Amino acid sequence: PTPQPALATVRSPQLNRNVLEAAPASSAAATAGRDWATINSIRVLAMDAVEQANSGHPGTPMALAPVGYLLWSRFLRHNPADPAWLDRDRFVLSCGHASMLSYALLHLSGYALSLDDIKAFRQWGSKTPGHPERGHTAGIETTTGPLGQGVGNAVGMALAERLLGEHFNRPGHAIVDHRTWALVSDGDLMEGVASEAASIAGHLALGKLTLIYDDNGITIDGKASLSFSENVARRFEAYGWRTLRVSDGNDLAAIEGALADAADQSARPTLILLTTRIGDPAPTKGGTAGAHGAPLGAEEIRRTKEILHWPEEPKFRVAPEALEWAPAARQRGSRLQTEWAHRMDGYRDTHPDMAQEWDRVQAGALPQGWESALPLFSPADGQLATRQASAKTLNALAPKITNLVGGSADLAESTGAEIKGGGSVSATATGRNLHWGIREHGMAATLNGMAAHGGLRPFGSTFLIFTDYCKPSIRLSALMQLPVIYIGTHDSIGLGEDGPTHQPIEQLAMLRAMPNLQVIRPADATETVEAWRSALQRTDGPTVLALSRQKLPVLDRVALAGAEGVRRGGYVLRDCAGTAEVILIATGSEVHLALAAADKLTAAGRKVRVVSLPCWELFDAQPESYRHQVLPPAVRARVSIEAAATMGWHRFVGDGGVALGLDHFGASAPADRLYQEFGLTADAVVAAATDLVNRGER
User: Fold this and answer.
1) Is 300 noted as a catalytic residue in this protein?
2) Terminus-to-terminus CA distance in the chain, angstroms?
3) Which one of the listed residues 133, 196, 418, 440 is annotated catalytic?
4) Cα 297 to the chain's mean position, in Å?
């Protein structure tokens, strides 16, 4: 799309069918009084909550109270009685430090968030934590706080709405038709992840997405001009966005007109640049960094309430007029949801098979019989990199799991994360393959938004080394318990000649340190199938699949144990008669080194057990009895082998064991040479195991 030649400035209302509640002319004065009473109630709640907690950010909620109120009362299609209504509009507070704005809006519009909850702001066990948390507070769509992430989440939600609508909607039966709105700050737009996501949104022409930019010119350090002088509007126009400006954050008519304009668009995403005064109307700290990240103080609050003609006591006072909002919002929300339910009933009558699929994907369930599509591999298939096995598994599952969508950060040929025949998503075409370009950070944040929206099982891929770029978003996937699948290929020095810049060393340790993240590094094609099974069956958090570039033999499951043990995180792949003298433990490509070493040790008369441990998190979740069955405490001679940092392996090898790995960077050379030079060979494993056994015998 051609960027707008000039920035449009909105100065008057442009009311249309998108305004949910337009007051009759005869009651305009009463409506204005109620509006300002509610807006100022939001400001007072923000001031008092932060002051009582002695912690928080009062200024941004105060400045954004007018636009927040108008958006939620006039435009946002939501039902406070059912925050999970499927066709609701999505609202993202990307500037999560302004959480009191969300909490005040939720409380006043009738959600299950009481005044006592607001009084407990930032306290142990409260529903009002310092930053909004998905799943913790009803009505919060996504966890925000790390700036820029909410922009990516909003893009993902708008993208999910489009993909689901294109798949499910039928002529005369639009069951997916909602918008995504986000409030963003200077800090959000400075973060690179927001730029990546906004570029994606413009490229895909996500016209049901609106960002409202709080252009207050203040950051924690002082004036934003200390570090920020770019023309934000021109930047977004270059991305392909529409831009509107409202020059006064208290001009309700202009704000309403801009929101109406945005709500009437579907061709391109919209950025509304809203000039506000942080902390408005605080007399001394308003408009300064003093209103940003600290309580205003008792005297400043007293003077601000005086300006608002507000009683100093009681604290947390809500104007009587503001109390009228909740019943009206609930009534309107019920009507909107009922209208949608009637459309859904007609859809069920006309398209029963599609309706059944809709119910399944919205429940996050997998289709009946999906596991029958999982491929089977054997040694007769020859050697396969686990990334190749992953690609075959993905494409075997895609016809069955129709809401499986995703792609790569410009690496589909390498990562294999492409649904053959699935079509490419673009501004003008639908499909199941997403081309993220070289935007790993934006990809991951957008995947979170898609998963939070619901209805899709998103995956994204890149080289494992570049999970460094994805890490903040992966952390939020884990925190929000979102079942995103991250495919990280080229998982070790086995990628070879690209050298140390591309060879992951510390990445596995970093990822394994993250709570609620499942990291699976399969040893062969059969374990890769099981890794996909585990990732798809997981509904309470993300999974990283760490896959090899180099080809690996498909293990003989007749001679060795089956791969079902992957579902338990670790299992005995090969055992010996009687009690083992030494246990070799490995993941991924190094399992093959362990097996080769076991052959040599067995030939030398040693009793050896080989354990494949592809997923530490799943193994740790097993009963102690199973873990001791796999790794008997009495066998202290243990050797772990993994072509990565050894951090964490002491948990499995114990004080009497040895962890073979790489606690240094790699080098540029063919993979075989690297393994030899860095001491990751069957002979090195044999030497370490023999030494341990000999020491135990002395």
Assistant:
1) no
2) 77
3) 440
4) 36
